[in-house]
């Protein structure tokens, strides 16, 4: 179906997400920090990126901002999966250009629904 990049520093969560996305038919790549994640986005041009906000080095906000500022990547859907849950946090994330904002913990069913929704939205536009 889609090539999904997970940028998440929690190894257990990244593994769980990867397994669930693969079972849903997606190809999955993983990176454990923002800098590696941004390098992977640039190298592989995934169909969708799932990024944590709080990571060592570059934050998920930094990664999303860099994606949106790169003409070759700017249309890449980005889902923010984070422990930050306030409306102000969501506002910052959407201001940086995320397509969906999900609070941890998040059900894998909801995550898959959001992945599919942003993919459909990008295909339609």
UniProtKB/TrEMBL annotation:
This is Response regulator receiver protein. It comes from the Bacteria. PANTHER family: RESPONSE REGULATORY DOMAIN-CONTAINING PROTEIN, STRESS RESPONSE REGULATOR PROTEIN 1. Transmembrane segments: none annotated. It comes from Okibacterium fritillariae. GO terms for biological process: phosphorelay signal transduction system. SMART domains: REC. Gene3D superfamilies: 3.40.50.2300. CDD domains: REC_OmpR. The modification 4-aspartylphosphate is found at residue 52. One of its GO terms (molecular function) is DNA binding. Residues 3-119 form the Response regulatory domain. Keywords: DNA-binding, Phosphoprotein, Transcription, Transcription regulation, Two-component regulatory system.
